[in-house]
Amino acid sequence: MDVAELTPVATEKIGAKRKVRAYIALTKPRVMELLLVTTVPVMILAQGGLPTLGLVLATVIGGALSAGSAGAFNCYFDRDIDRVMNRTQGRPLVTGEVSPREALVFSWVLAVVSTVWLALTTNLLAAALSVAAIAFYVLIYTLWLKRRTAQNIIWGGIAGCFPVLIGWSAVTGSLSWEPFILFGVVFLWTPPHYWPLSMKYREDYRSVGVPMLAVVRGRAQVGLQVILYAWATVACSLLLIPVGNMGIVYSVVAVLAGGWFIYETHRLYNLAIRGAAASPMRVFHGSISYLTLVFLAVGIDPLLHF
Question: Is the backbone of residue 102 left (phi > 0), alpha (psi -120 to 50) or beta?
Fold first, then answer.
């Protein structure tokens, strides 16, 4: 059917659906999914079993709203460079599906609602950590580090570590060594996860003056840094075994998945130093699989008791 033949009501419905999809896109759902993958398993570890379904849902909803707020703020402040980069030209603020004012209001609403929600349904510590995560991602990473230093991903990645602390504190109302070790895993994992992506989109970042490591250093140097951080990530994950009294499931997964992750980073480096065609996205996607496997093991291990 031709659009001109649609009734005003039908046309309005299409516009409303597109608007809703645009608002959802502002929250960066793929990033949100990854953050939530780290939350629920940590809650199981903190409980030493299954937390109540209500608490899990409350924490996941609050975490999703919080992560969505940070993503929307990022889209608002980065809309100037998003218009130039090929990778981001489909974002709602670039296409005009959402206005800057609408995006800013939406970001603030999500921030306030997520904070109030977590305070009412979990506890004040979880709510405070949620606020800290949003503030760190927006103020420290987006507005300060991203356009000024090649260390942007290293320190900016701290924001993505907060869901671990939020999940633990939602269950216990406090923090201990276990969530901080897993915080360290996510922190150390972020550079070898994101730097391969920046290798693929190197020219995009160069065109807008964002000094990602792949822009200011050669492929071989980036590949070496990816290896070093991958080794550090795996070593940190193994610390949880004695500290968290983890069993066979987590221990085996941490060793095997870690070994595979390290192998993939070495493969990328070897191709880079030989000048051969490399596929940095293989490490990028592999890093997601690695983190998912490790955190699934975190959640399964306490349920099996061996």
Answer: alpha
Report the distance separating Cα 158 and Cα 176, nearest Å.
18
CA distances from 203 to 35, 85, 165, 209, 283 (A): 28, 9, 35, 10, 19
What is the model's pTM?
0.89
236 phi/psi in degrees, rounded to 5: -65, -40
Sign of the alpha-carbon dihedral angle for 111, 116, 118, 123: positive
How many beta carbons lie within 10 A of that of residue 272, not counting itself?
A: 20
Distance CA 267, CA 261 (A): 10
For residue 58, give both structure tokens: 């409350």
Average confidence (pLDDT) over 284-293:
95
Position 278, amino acid? A
Give the rounded percent of residues in the chain with a pLDDT score beyond 70.
94
Q: Which residues contact 82 (CB under 8 A, 6 or more apart)?
A: 75, 88, 89, 91, 93, 94
What one-character DSSP code corresponds to residue 86?
G
**Among all chains, which residue has been given the structure tokens 């100037």?**
80
Residue 13 has pLDDT above 90, yes or no: no
